## 1
Amino acid sequence: MKQKKIRFLVGSLLIVGAIGYLITMGISNTSQYFFTVDELLSQKVSYAGAGMKVKGNVVNGSIQRDPNDYLNVKFSIEEKESSINVTYQGVTPDMFADGREVVVEGTLGKDGVFHANTLLTSCPSKYEAEKEAGKMHPGALSTDKYKEPGLKKVDALPKTTI
Amino acid sequence: MNDIGEFTLLVALATAIYGCVAYVMSARGNRIDLYLSADKTPLIVWGCVMISSICLWRAFLTNDFSLQYVWAYSNIELDTFYKIASFWGGQKGSLLFWTLLLTTYTVVVHFQNRKKNLRVVPYAMAVLFTIIIFFLFLVNFSTNPFERIPLPPADGRGLNPLLQNYWMVIHPPTLYLGYVGFTVPFAFAVAALISKNLDDGWIRLTRKWTLISWFFLCMGNLFGASWAYVELGWGGYWAWDPVENAAFMPLLIATAFLHSVMIQEKKDMMKVWNMSLILLTFVMTIFGTFITRSGLIQSVHTFDEATLGYYFLAFLFVILFSCMALIIARLPLLKSENQLDSFLSRESSFLFNNLLLLGIAFATFWGTIFPIISEAVRGIKITVGPPFYNQVNVPIGLALLALVGIGPVIAWRRATLSNLKKNFFKPLAAAFIAAVALAPVIPLGSRVENYTYVTFVLCVFVTACILIEFFKGTAARMGLHEESMFGALATVTWRNKRRYGGYIVHIGIVLIFAGIAGSQAYGTHIEKHLKTGETFKIRGYDITYEKLVAIEATSVKTRVIAQLQVERNGKHYWTARPEKEFYKGQNQPVSEVDVLSTWKEDLYMILADFRDDESATIKVYVNPMVSWMWTGGWVIAFGTMISMWPDRLEQRRRLERFRREESLFPSPAQE
């Protein structure tokens, strides 16, 4: 009976070991540093060329799009007095705007510009919004950021033409 | 009215404390008077919480913005439908909602067990009440939904438009029904430990609870994925976000539990294991809530209430340590008579299935908390993303898939070579044929493509195993009775709802695996900035950007719609209308993607951006086999329904068993 127990223990340990190995390999292969902008800039070691994620707020007025290639965007992100420049190729999320918190994933170039592969904006979370709400007097909430899209408006959806 | 709402929560808390103490004392001192008194409390506590909830709903429906919570999540213009759903839209309300569900479940448990199982019920009720007390404490003193604003404003902030869709009404409640549901088996497990009633009585009592809760948790996860896919518009359905993982881990552990209890019921083995699993399931539901609410882990959904996080953490540790101590104390009583005999047996398949499920759960857990650990240990935050989870969970998942086929078929106790041959020859042959047939037809070479190939072959293997099981049962019945094939199939399924319902669920799982594999390996996408009239190609589709139209849908909502004509092989195939919705008062728009779903693939269009000159940025995804996943979900739902359906024969047997037990062990009520 004891032999069976040992065999099962060994078998189970093998499975557990295999999974543990997968996890360790997975972490060492795919993990990325995660910095806020000020943390990144205050790092003593140079991370030029390394893949990482950086979090910061979009600097007001810094968003520039290439007039020839609309999907080519340059902007800056900041956190606590530090800021870096970012370039990104691709569609920007709906919530990407001045002042928004974003997380960019990509590599820091030797020139200090961050080349982003992915651009994520934080969902204005329900609970975060509530915290904001709790701290401010309701009357102080600004409602003038709404921007009407500058297109001709029609009354009804036109029928398809085919 | 708001005062009533607030006050009843206090009454509920006091009553729950009384009830908990009374139940414990009645059980320990065998005091019938205390038991009868405690037995009045579940209904009272539920009644109070219900009244309080109704008060909150009333506040929403009457636009009472003196409540901070109502102000934050509603406004006058909001559709009534969403005013009701906003109840669980924020932190405070969702905790009250959890409490409402928990007290409702407690009342049901109370009624179900009024005159039976009186050795364990008092303790089970006490455990349920302890958890209720925790949540009532939070709702009364930490995050009170009835918190007031001294000068009520005229209108509220409104609900985030991203949440204004029917998923908001379905997904959170479904998930909560699952989470909260697992409290009941947990309570009975602890009660069994305390009262030393350690046969499988607690498992049988709570089997329906486990199954129903598992069902809701599974559906909740699938709804979340579907919501993300259809509404959030990034072309995918799962991002391994910490909050997603928080809902996924309990599901995995609950699945392990669901399977391993079968071994305890049939073979009286794995008792300690089962106790530990239900404890872990419950701990994971609380942990998931903790992650979601504490903001400790960077997530797209991060919320931010530090104090609340600490309460949950403390609660978590108290439960974990007290239950572990209890299990260790009862270890001698949890020893099984039987043992695992062979690696090749159904028992071991179940054990391996459990190990694999827990492996995935642990890997997911590790990936989720890794940033916190790395920051604590090295001072730098290190994160892992989808590549990590794919690299680790996919191989384990494939091994699990193989077991889905092997487990139900392999013999109990010890599978000999001859019965292995008999059972697995045909499925293996089918798999081999599939492997040979698919190899030339589908792309191979990259890791993802290879995994998908293996997945498809395994899916064929598992489907063959399941279909053969159905066939064997049907054939056996046809041999004995004069029935048509369909009649025999229906009867045999109905007579063995648990088993065949489970097989149907497995078919659903196969579909989901296939759908995930196909969409991950063969998907493609393109993004283009176009002027009206321009055309582009993707995967055999010719897409023309026709025009851009803006419509004022309501006084606060403007829709900007892009119309695209899709052609295939020269013929018109689809008119796509992805749009963006702009809401007054919200400073970002909401994307409404347009998707054409077929069995083969989804054609998924996003209007990413547009400019005043009517040029637009369009992003197109071709996602193969995504609809297989949702179909798989429906199949799982159907299979679970069948499994859960009450069985007259089983009920009669159970009643007889109880009558026998009660005569042997008279309960306090009868003395």
## 2
Amino acid sequence: MYSYDSIDRKIVSERIAQFRGQVERRLAGDLTEDEFRPLRLMNGLYLQLHAYMLRVAIPYGTLSSKQMRALAGISRKFDKGYGHFTTRQNIQFNWPKLEDTPDILADLAKVDMHAIQTSGNCIRNITTDPLAGVAADELEDPRPWAEIIRQWSTFHPEFSFLPRKFKIALTGALEDRAAIRFHDIGLQIRKNEEGDIGFEVFVGGGQGRTPVIAKSIRSFLPEGDLLPYLEAILRVYNLQGRRDNLYKARIKILLDAMGPEAFTAAVEKEWQTTRDHTPNLPNEEILRIKAAFSPPKYERPAPSAKSDDALRRDGVPEGFFNWRRWNCIAHRERGYRAVIISLKPPGGIPGDASARQMEIIASLADSFSFGEIRVTHEQNLVLTDVRELDLYPLWKLLDAAGLGTGNASLATDIIACPGLDYCNLANARSIPISQQISERLTEEKLHLTGPFSIKISGCINACGHHHVADIGILGVDKKGEELYQIMLGGNPGNNAAIASILGPAISSDKVVESVESIIDTYLANRQTKETFSQTLGRLGTEIFREALYECH
Amino acid sequence: MNVIDNKGNMISDHWLLIPNLTPIPSESSAIVSLERYLSEKTEIITKANSIGLIVEPDQALDDIANELNQFGIIVLLFPKFTDGRAYSHARLLRQHHNYSGEIRAAGNILRDQLFFMKRCGFDSFILPDDKATTDWISGFSDFSAGYQYSSDDLPIAACERWNTKTLMD
């Protein structure tokens, strides 16, 4: 992974000094809360329902074991002994004190971490495929470009006071695991006929109250032109994006208002001028960053794992085989797997990990996966490079720490926002709904159903990605009562789709049985190997609507 | 009205900000609004010794691109400190229009923004009334390097790493 050099470190330490000064000025009354708010947000510090929340950046979701240990330490020292991994591949601490935050940043800086631009109307943490560099279907590793964009977007002098937040995601694989069509800019690495690497550029995707699938505005952008092209998009947005209405300020609204052709023409015109004045990065610098993501030293050939029969004779429980089936992903290197560590045990809070669990994961990463950990936008963790031989010993240790749940991509692998338990924007709670669903669905039913996504947001802002799930659940407030809208048929990936609402919102005590009846209807009606969205496409929503409202 | 340059020094201001309905004093250094300049161009050029413009964030300068270098100063207005359009205007002036005159920030600005403004090509800053200048000077040097090529001479990370003077080399 990329390691900071002295320049990166100095910039982070200067940031801490700057933020420490801002906190002191706020506490002394020299900064009003209105002035302080955008400044603290640009450093990931939110004021929530009960306390401040600090969101720490994990650039493109990549962590070293050392960094994971530091996060565990911070959660012990300054929080309540746990952290919450988010859909933007970051981590949040829910209980820091304002006056402690500069010291937290200082602790983070010791392991080259920070909270820069994890909130605010600026370019946010860059996200990518959690299997980058190891996925069997990858064309080109997106991480060097993610790092190049991270550096370019950090304290960008022109784009730090945008109309609204701005999210960039990229992928280098055939299957989109980074939801690039639901970002302000999505970049898909492509190869042209000459074999050159470049990007297909998508703009204007997003969720929130106005879900939009991004439009492709350029089918191939040569890699060397990436930064000037991003500058052009951001400049058009910075100058022309709406600033009069918070809810109409994202680039998706601008693109819709201008029309894709006019928007694209404005970007291309700006780019033609900008590219002549924006020098490219020195080639040595691009090579330096690419070298930081060279593959680890795989064992060749990797020792082969015992056969399943042999494992069963040794008394290995079925739980391992289930876990291996769902949580261990094909790897481009023979004899290796990428292992998803589920943060979704039955009854658990999606994305939460205790300090002890973080430390165990750090040690397991050291022992089994070259000391590196990834965060997924589904709020799980990944050890990307585990020998097949090591899968069973790894699972035993994970399982002992409550981390051995074999439900990756299954119906209990739920994305949920913090909801009304933490968030001051929420209308309803998300976490308890998620906990109830994961306790209700039996393992037998999960395995029978296969891959199935349930995503829960506590308000219209859609942090829980409810628009892009097989079943999306949206909490709404109706005269003080927490109700839930159920929607079906969303998809964050290559076949991007926005879920549609089935009907009137239902009460919280009906959500779990409604979800189960929708799943049962799918199981009763699906044809061989049909996914939920295929069954839904074939049968339409009516049969599911009936199943849903029969419960009432 | 306190004005500082981009090193934090107080500068004495010979520029006069002329409200739209006030006559232009003869032989003055007059800053006028863009719409007044467009409607009274000849008269203003005759009367004033030197001309400056004050530009709102929703005004584009493309239409008078060829005339820009006759302005000794262009004042870019920040109606709110969260309104970042003037950063792009400054960059466009420097990068696309090769504007070499003074660019000044006015309106609702924070000390915490001086570093970004300087990087985008601003030379001077009208301080909000109640703010002390000494306190503000440190804002220019919040960071010793930047990651992006911009309109200033701050060391750029990639150039420092490879010992090139600018990214152009």
